[in-house]
Amino acid sequence: MSIDNEDGLRELYPTQSKVVELKCLPAIDQHIAKFIALSPFLVIGSSDPEKGTDVSPRGDASGFVQVVDANTVMIPDRPGNNRLDTLSNTIANPEVGPVFFIPGVEVTARVNGRAKIIADEAKLADFAVSGNRPRAAIVVDAREAYLHCAKALKRSKLWEDDYRIERGELPTLGKMVSDQVNGEISVEDAEPGVETSYRDRMW
Fold this sequence. Notes:
- A hairpin with a 2-residue loop joins strand 5 and strand 6.
- 31% of the residues lie in helices and 29% in strands.
- It contains eight helices and seven strands.
- By secondary structure, the protein is of the alpha+beta class.
C-alpha cells in the first residue's frame, strides 16, 4: 500500500507532542546560536524544480558558520568538486535546510529558510583560512530553527565505535571512482588527484 496524501500519512502516526510543536522557533535563539558556533559539520538540503533534490556536506573548524543575527546564518563555500549543486539549486529555488552536527553530541540543530549567494569581498574576508578566501557564501534567512532529538544518532551510534569499520572494508575513493566510470580514469590517475586535492585545495 502506498501513501499519497497527507490524511493517509497522518493516520499512520500519532499526533506530535506539545514539546515538538513549541520547540520550532521562528528565529535562532541563544542555544541554537551556540550550537551552530560549536559545530564543525553540517549537511544542507536544496532543490531545483528541474534537476531535483540534493543534500551536500559542509565542514571546517568549529565556528566556520557565522550566526549574523537571530534570522541570518552565513555558510562559506569551501573548495569542493565544482559541481555547484547547492549553489545552483539556490539560484533556482532559495529554500534550503541545513542540519548542524557536533561530534559527541547526539542532538542536532536544524534551520529552514530562504538562501542567497553572496560574493562580497569584505564579508568573505572573515571566512579566510591561511589567506584563502572563499569565492562565495550562502546566506540563509532563517524562517524556523529547532533542536532535533537524539534518536537517529543514538540508533546509529554515530559517535561510538559499535558500527565503526576497518577502512580496508571499502576500496579507496580512487578505486571506486575508477570502477564507476568503467576504467576511463585509471586508479593510478585517480588516486594522486584525490590526494593532491586534499593537500592543496582544502581552502
